[in-house]
Amino acid sequence: MADEVVLLDFWPSPFGMRLRIALAEKGVKYEYKDEDLRNKSPLLLQSNPVHKKIPVLIHNGKPVCESVIALQYIDEVWTNKPLLPSDPYLRSQARFWADFVDKKIYDIGRKTWTTKGDEQEAAKKEFIDCIKLLEVELGDKPFFGGETLGFVDVTLVPFYSWFSVYEKYGNFSIAPECPKFMAWVKRCMEKESVSKSLPDQDKVCGFVAEMRKKLGVE
Amino acid sequence: MAEENVVSLHGTWASPFSKCVELALKTKGIPFEFVEEDLRNKSPSLLKYNPVHKKVPVLVHNGKPIAESLVILEYIDETWKTGPKLLLEDPYKRAQVRFWAGYLQQHLFVTMSLVCKSDGEVQEKAIKELFEKLKTFEEGIKDLFPDGAPSIDCSNNLGLLDIVLCSQFGPHKVQEEVLGITTIDPEKNPLLFTWLKSLNELPLVKELTPPHEKLVAVLHFFRNYALKSSAA
User: Fold this and answer.
1) Is B79 helix (H, G, I), strand (E, B) or coil?
2) CA spacing 20 to 30 A to A30: which of A161, B6, B112, B157?
3) A114-141 burial string, b = 16+ CB within 10 Å, else e?
4) Residue B143: CB atoms within 10 Å
5) Which of B71, B97, B110, B132 is best to mutate for the A interface (most A CBs within 10 A)?
């Protein structure tokens, strides 16, 4: 029986990118559907009635919502190239750090380019602190998953496509403060599953500039 | 071969997140030491075991710490393979359980906290939101119970979602007494009401539920403290 896999997504979404990477790593064929978030499709509203958000993975007609939950689903259904290690303790650590990325990186990253003044300065500092904490967790390993891309790598690397947005509107530079992190990014981007799943930073920057113009920000 | 299995749980008796882990450990029959933390004066060991968030609960297994209640629950299920399973094997059912557990712990918990911490218009708005979210939850979980039966586990044991629901809303009568509103109405939320009733009757749950008066007192304290802080 052929698997039918559909991904409801929005190209600049780091959460969607996570699933693109995972599906690519595992060689799963799927249909990509880009949503217009100002005009959500009936399929999206029906598949995620609770949050009405992307990404949604639809496997043989059954929807899985929330990117970290969908990543675990993908890992459990397609067991080649596992994202989570087999040891329960290492799995718990991977889940902990994926949760940390979810709780911190998106919200604080967002604040670096959507706030001003003291709030923005605080966000920039906290963002760098979070990246540095992740650098400590990475240690000497090539990837958070060890020798290969793992769960934390997949949840985290998509935010790299938004770095030029944070840096441009936040007026700060991430690379000089976090060279280890940037080296890890480079290693991730050498993998086709990652480089093909992340849009160019310029494209994301252009999208944000358009959005800001439309909203009359500046 | 006897394997060293030293388990301690750093938590607080009033925290639903701590309660989750207690229920999971008891369900699996895992002996553990409960270390009551004073959150206004965090112990050096808590800060050592959870340097990132400095929060409870933290499970320490043979010296290795695990933080975040849902992460801990999955760790417990994967490590202690004898005894009842907290999660079913089917990946789709697991995804659904994880989704609703997350919904309970993030969305419903946040709204419930706001209802407890506020008054006037802010509270009214939060109450309205609470009822909407409870309705969403009730509608959503219907898919998990094709027979209308309360527990999603095949046996009578507590599964992950039973545990999270029980921890967050088991003491709903306490919330109702302190706030003067019916949070879990049998007419608005018949499935939820029945489910919670049967959970609260389980000996394991009764054993871990603090006395009603103690919970009422702590919720009063929490509410008054929050109202005073926001008024200042």
Assistant:
1) helix
2) A161
3) bbeeeebeebbebbbebbeebbeebeee
4) 9
5) B71
Does the beta-carbon distance from A95 to B91 stay under 8 Å? no
A116-134 pLDDT, tens digit per residue, is: 999 999 999 999 999 999 9
Q: Which chain B residues are Cβ-neighbours of A77 within 8 angstroms?
A: 91
Whole-complex ipTM: 0.95
Contact call for residues A8 and A35 (beta carbons, < 8 A): yes
What would the pLDDT profile of B135-194 be if each residue is shown by its tens digit?
999 999 887 776 665 554 545 678 999 999 999 999 999 999 999 999 999 999 999 999
Report pLDDT for B142.
Answer: 86
Interatomic CA distance for residues B198 and B85, integer angstroms: 19
State whether residue A8 is helix, strand or coil: strand
Judged by phi (left if over 0) then psi (alpha if -120 to 50, else beta), residue A82 lies in beta
Q: What is the model's pTM?
A: 0.95
Token pair belonging to B81? 């393979």
Total count of residues recorded for chain A:
218
- Render pLDDT for B60-95 as a digit per residue (tens, 0 to 9): 999 999 999 999 999 999 999 988 999 989 999 999
Q: Find out whether A138 and A187 touch, Cβ atoms under 8 Å.
A: no
Residues in A touching B98 (Cβ below 8 Å): 66, 69, 72
A187 touching B (Cβ < 8 Å): no
Residues A177-213: tens digit of each pLDDT: 999 999 999 999 999 999 999 999 999 999 999 988 8
DSSP A106-153: HHHHHHHHH--HHHHHHHHHHHHHHHHHHHHHHTT-SBTTBSS--HHH
Mean pLDDT, rounded, for A132-141: 97
Chain A residue with CA closest to B139: the answer is A50
For CA atoms B61, B64, B68, B73, give the dihedral sign.
negative
